[in-house]
Every structure is written in structure tokens, then in C-alpha cells.
Amino acid sequence: MQVKRFGVSLEDELLKKLDRLVENQKFPNRSQAIRYLIKKDLVENEWEGNEEVAGAIVLVYDHHKRNLQNESTEVQHDYHHLILSVQHVHLNHDNCLETITVKGKASELIDLSNKLIAIKGIKHGQLVMSTAN
Ligand code: NI
Fold first, then answer.
1. How far is the CA of 29 from the centre of ligand 1 (A)?
2. Ligand 1 centre from 75 Cα, in Å?
3. How far is the CA of 67 from the centre of ligand 1 (A)?
4. Burial level of 42, CB count in 10 A (0-12/13-18/19+)?
5. Per-residue CA distances from 115 to 19, 50, 76, 108, 120 (Å)
6. Could you tell me if 86 and 100 are in contact, meaning their C-beta atoms sit under 8 angstroms apart?
7. What is the pLDDT of residues 83-128, one digit of tens each?
8. Cα(102)–Cα(84) distance, integer angstroms
9. Ligand 1 centroid vs 73 CA: distance in angstroms?
10. What percent of the chain has pLDDT over 70?
11. By the number of CB atoms within 10 A of the CB, which of 16, 104, 113, 115 ranks highest?
């Protein structure tokens, strides 16, 4: 992809904040930090505009709670058209971590995520909102 250059005028204060971000997040340069911020904003807009997006739902739960896995499977089958892959990792004796990779309309992914995270016994759950573009 062709890269174009343009000048950016910033107040001293704001430039200092940008440089702090570059330093804290170890961006190689200001351009990469600005690119990150623009993309972050665009992805937020995609989700707010209910566009086709991609992401991952991460769930941590105790596998001894048998009914939990049945319920989770039930919900996942209701939304099977959104699910690209499911990865199950046994964290330790009790806990499992599942990463469900999803793609589809933002609102549907949020519905799916909310239903999974609300299942009784889920210790932690989070939807990572990313992009398909
Ligand atoms: Ni497991």
C-alpha cells in the first residue's frame, strides 16, 4: 500500500501526550502511534455502526460445573453462523480458558458475547472488539 506524508500541527501539550504514548506503548515512531489511534477510532465506529466486524470472546470457567459447558454449547449453536473457531485450553486443575473467534454484525456478536458471559459460573469473560477490514 502506498504511504503518503502529511504535516500535523499540534499544541505543545498534545504533542507531549503523543510522545508519552509512543514511549509507554513502545511505538517505533509517532506515525505508528497516530496510525494506531486512527484505526482504534475507526474500529469503534464500525462496532457502533453495526458493521461486519471480527473479534474474540474469552471465557474462563471451572469445568467441574457441568451444566455450564452444556449451556455454553447450546448458546454457541444458536449463533453458529458467527463462530469461526473455538479454542479450549486447560489452564490448571479446575479452570479452562476458551477463545471463541467471531465474525459478523457487531450487534449480533455483542448479543452472543453477553449471553455467554452471563452463564452462571463463568469466572471472567470479555469481548475483544476488532475489525475484519
Ligand atoms: Ni479444560
1. 41
2. 18
3. 14
4. exposed
5. 40, 18, 9, 11, 10
6. yes
7. 999 999 999 999 999 999 999 999 999 999 999 999 999 999 999 9
8. 6
9. 14
10. 100
11. 113
Query: What pLDDT, on a 0 to 100 scale, did the predictor assign at position 1?
Result: 81
Give me ligand 1 centre to Cα 88, in Å.
Answer: 6
Q: What gap in Å lies between CA 42 and CA 44, rounded to an integer?
A: 5
The Å distance, Cα 83 to ligand 1 centre, comes to 19
**Residue 86 Cα to ligand 1 middle (Å):** 12
Q: Where are the domains of the chain?
A: 12-48, 52-131
Query: One-letter amino acid identity for 27?
Result: F
Neighbouring residues of 86: CB distance < 8 A, sequence distance ≥ 6: 76, 98, 99, 100, 101
- Cα dist. 113→13, 92, 120 in Å? 39, 24, 14
CA of 31 to the centre of ligand 1 (A): 42
- Give the side-chain half-sphere CA count within 13 A for 57: 26
Q: How far is the CA of 104 from the centre of ligand 1 (A)?
A: 27
Domain 52-131 class?
A: alpha beta
| Ligand 1 center from residue 128 Cα (angstroms) | 21
